[in-house]
Design a protein that fits this description.
Blueprint: E1 3-6, H1 7-18, H2 55-62, H3 64-67, H4 77-81, H5 85-93, H6 106-117, E2 146-147, E3 173-182, E4 190-192, E5 195-199, E6 204-209, E7 215-220, E8 230-233, E9 241-246, E10 251-256, E11 262-267, E12 274-275, E13 281-283, E14 286-293, E15 312-317, E16 323-328, E17 335-339, E18 345-348, E19 359-361, E20 366-370, E21 385-390, E22 396-401, E23 431-434, E24 440-445, E25 451-454, E26 461-464, E27 482-483, E28 487-492, E29 502-507, E30 513-518, E31 541-543, E32 546-550, E33 555-560, E34 566-571, E35 596-598, E36 601-606, E37 615-623
Helix pairs in contact: 2-6, 5-6
């Protein structure tokens, strides 16, 4: 059952706990045993109090093929060891590796966790008050500075026209405060007036004070989240505003943004490895939720009947959570095809996951989503594509597939027959760019390192760049460019051994390359996991005169918009004491959700995918740290 915790409630509970009836102090004695989190089951112990299952052979048989060494995007063994045992347990029982653990007993899962992390998972309990609760909990400030949703606006521009500081001020930015909390992946920070909202796969969402980092409230939920959140008016919320979170179990939660009180929770799909990675988009009382899944990771699970997931958008009534429509990107449903080498029935077509936030085009009454690759050899005409849907009905208006037969799967047991594709997903949201004369372009890049511009009415490709780098499974444009409407800034995540990691600036109207800079290479690796790459996988963020890009080696940099000159560079891996009492908390890789900026503050998460251990490090920057 989800729980929320407000400053006022904690104060009241604390007051009650300090005095027994009649004013007497509560009797001394041992604390009550912790209450396990629902779903966490301890396996039976033997007489020595130890768990009898050795997890090493199970890991070698089920997991090592993807992690020793790491295959594609999978974390390596060292990165797995840095995670908390609770995080690994949750991934195996409720997360993307649930299929890998199919048929395993609780004791076997427990043994694998102990083998990976060297520790036993502890039943998760309802955490007590945070140590840095805010002393006051004032009203929300809807007229204050904002970065709402993934791209700040409905067009997903990732451009902040009123940052509260200038490009010339960027070299003066210093850490004002830091906050660390559990979870190896995180949402992009959402700014709403003087409030900051964040969440992670650790199953905790926070409302923080943007200036100090103190905690207004915390909401605990199972499954965790890394999809960025959206916030908007809600007539039944006491604060009149709701915060919307999509989680890794395909649930959407609506919370009162002022208190953290749950308003509703709705499961939008029941696919067993399905999840929500793209931010739900909110427009005129409707929440548009993109769905994705981790079936690409099931390539070596012989018992898994792969693949059955197809990218989908679900429209919900934002007030009630009621489903208004649900539209898959394919009319052809997955059907039985063949059997794999383990004798398990395979299915297809499948794939086309929607990893990123939908883009809303109010003028044309449609939304746009970009899709990932195909998982099987069965023809999938909407994979690696941009898809336009009717806002009111979800009906597909047009599809532009930029690469056919990109059939990709990690591992070989369930892999597609024939030649494997290059894994050129669209991981970034389409960006709607208005041009002079009333015309518009829909611009987006993918992991091929090519950026495309399409006609929002017909879907026709109007321009496409040459390859800006090598591209690949972990290269090219990963989580997204930023655009000020005139120039598009595309971050490139290429591996330096075979590509060109860096940042490219394009004329938004024509696609002409204006400048391209390489990411610095050969720097000391300070990422705790030990895996450092210089590429820019994280989504870029633009302000007047500058663009900010985060690198996988933990460096956050700002470049001059005019010529790509480097104007600011900070290593976010440096350990720092946090406002919630954690000493020397390290950062790590910068990935997925980029920096968000408003009200003279810049916020970014460091430590993506366990590269800083079991926690995320949230950093808040201001001019001179004031």
């Amino acid at each position: 059952m989800p729980r929320h915790l407000t400053a006022a409630l904690v104060a009241a509970l604390a007051a009650l706990s300090l005095a027994a009836p009649g004013g007497a102090q509560p009797p001394a004695g041992p604390p009550p045993p912790p209450t396990p989190k629902p779903g966490f089951v301890l396996p039976p112990e033997n007489s020595a109090g130890l768990y009898p299952i050795n997890g090493e052979p199970i890991f070698k048989a089920r997991c090592a093929a993807c992690h020793e060494p790491a295959v594609d995007r999978a974390p390596n063994r060292r990165e797995l060891e840095a995670r908390s045992p609770e995080d690994v347990y949750d991934v195996l029982t409720a997360g993307r590796m649930k299929a890998m653990a199919q048929g395993m007993s609780q004791a076997e899962i427990y043994g694998v966790v102990r083998f990976i992390t060297g520790k036993s998972p502890t039943p998760q309990v309802a955490q007590g008050p945070d140590p840095n609760l805010c002393k006051t909990n004032g009203p929300l400030q809807p007229n204050g500075p904002q970065w709402n949703g993934w791209g700040r606006d409905l067009a997903n521009s990732r451009y902040q026209p009123k940052p509260g500081f200038t490009a010339a001020d960027l070299p003066r930015l210093k850490v004002k405060w830091a906050f660390a909390y559990p979870g190896t992946k995180n949402t992009e920070p959402l700014i709403f007036g003087d409030r900051l909202f964040v969440a992670s796969l650790g199953g905790k969402a926070y409302s923080l004070d943007a200036r100090t980092g103190c905690v207004h409230w915390r909401y605990d939920f199972k499954g965790g989240a890394r999809a960025s959140m959206s916030l908007g008016p809600h007539p039944k919320a006491a604060s009149r505003y709701a915060l919307y979170i999509g989680d890794d179990r395909m649930f959407v939660h609506a919370l009162d943004a002022g208190s953290g009180q749950e308003l509703w929770s709705a499961r939008v799909d029941d696919h067993r490895v399905g999840r929500i990675t793209g931010s739900p988009a909110l427009y005129k009382g409707v929440l548009y939720v993109p769905l994705s899944a981790s079936e690409e990771s099931q390539g070596n699970v012989g018992a898994y009947g792969c693949c059955t997931f197809v990218g989908t958008v679900v429209a919900l009534d934002a007030v009630t959570g009621k489903q208004l429509w649900k539209q898959a990107i394919l009319d052809d449903k997955p059907h039985p095809t063949r059997k794999n080498s383990a004798g398990t029935q395979m299915y297809g077509p499948a794939g086309g996951a929607i990893w990123s936030a939908p883009t809303i085009d109010a003028r044309r009454g449609q939304l746009y989503v970009a899709t990932g690759d195909s998982y099987t050899e069965i023809d999938h005409p909407t994979s690696d594509a941009v898809v336009a849907m009717d806002l009111l009905t979800g009906k597909i208006r047009w599809v532009n597939q930029v690469l056919a037969k990109d059939n990709f799967m990690s591992g070989t047991v369930n892999g597609p027959l024939g030649q494997r594709g290059p894994d050129y997903d669209f991981g970034s949201s389409p960006q709607l760019v208005d041009l002079p004369g009333g015309k518009a372009l829909l611009v987006t890049g993918n992991k091929s390192s090519i950026v495309y511009a399409m006609d929002p009415v017909s879907g026709k490709t109007l321009w496409a760049t040459p390859k800006l780098g090598s591209g690949g499974a972990g290269g090219g444009v990963e989580w997204g460019p930023a655009t000020d409407g005139k120039v598009l800034y595309a971050p490139l995540a290429d591996n330096p051994a075979r590509g060109r990691p860096g940042l490219a600036a394009l004329d938004a109207a024509t696609g002409k390359l204006l400048w391209q800079v390489d990411a610095p290479k050969g720097l000391p690796c300070n990422v705790p996991s030990g895996r450092c790459l210089p590429g820019y996988s994280q989504a870029a963020t633009a302000i007047p005169g500058a663009v900010i890009a985060g690198a996988l080696d933990g460096h956050l940099r700002a470049y001059a918009a005019a010529d790509g000159r480097l104007i600011w560079d900070i290593d976010t891996t440096a350990p720092i004491d946090t406002v919630n009492g954690i000493k020397a908390a390290p950062g790590g890789a910068l990935d997925m959700g980029g920096a968000t900026i408003a009200g003279g503050m810049l916020f970014v998460h460091s430590g993506y995918n366990g590269t800083a251990g079991a926690s995320n490090l949230l950093l808040a920057f201001s001019s001179d740290g004031r």
